[in-house]
Amino acid sequence: MFGSKQAPAETFSVRLTDEGWRVRLSPEAYRVLRQHGTERPGSSPLNFEKREGVFVCAGCGTPLFRSETKYESGTGWPSFYAPIEGAVATRTDRSFFMTRTEVHCATCGGHLGHVFPDGPQPTGQRYCMNGVALDFRPAQE
Ligand code: FE
Fold it and tell me: Rounded distance, CA 21 to CA 24, Å?
């Protein structure tokens, strides 16, 4: 599609124009999801979310992480040891003079955060997510 800023190898089933995302998202969610921003650590109420349920993409609503994979990393960002299979994708991020693995929603391409190899078992992975890029859906009682 003309005007797409995504890598040609990766296509997303949910696509909006930049203006469409601006209208749909809060300014802070837009800054994180669509401009690769990072929220201030400790700022997300989802740091304290302990209920059973699912964390969905704030951009498109796709379920991304289950509550049982969430853990307290001490970083100030909601952290998980594994995503729902196939829900996220990664690419190498060389910004800020570091090489990190960027994590984004596989459905809409929205930037979620980064993954680091210092998480707990069973995966050893730490998915360090921006809470503003997620919405929590509690399980039905
Ligand atoms: Fe999404």
Answer: 5
